[in-house]
Amino acid sequence: MAKYVTLNEAMDAKDELGEAELRYKLLAEVFESEPKLRSQLNPAIVAAKAEINQLRALATEGDDETSDDDSGDVVPFDASRFRKSS
C-alpha cells in the first residue's frame, strides 16, 4: 500500500484504501482539535473506519489462495452421524 501526502494524490492514483485512510486521518485531526464539532464528526469517522475495514477485507480476500481444490463443493448430509447411540 502506497502512502500519500495529500488526498488528491490518493484520488489520482485511484487507491480507495489510501484515500479512505487519509480521510480518516483528517477527520481524526479535526475531531481532536475542535471539541465542539465532535458530535457532527463522529458519524463520518465511524463511516470512514468501516470503509477502511471493508476495503482491507476485500484486499486480503483477493490475496488468499486456497490450496484445497474442493473448498466450494457441497457434501451430502449424513443424518446417521447425529443420531444418539443407545
TL;DR?
The chain has 86 residues and is an all-alpha fold. It contains three helices and no strands. The model has no long low-confidence stretch (mean pLDDT 85).
Question: Can you describe what's shown?
Answer:
The longest helix is centred in the middle third of the chain and has 26 residues. This protein has a domain of 57 residues. The mean pLDDT is 85. It contains three helices and no strands. 58% of the residues lie in helices and 0% in strands. Helix 2 packs antiparallel against helix 3. It is mainly α. The chain is elongated and about 70 Å long. It comes from Mycolicibacterium litorale. This is Terminase small subunit.
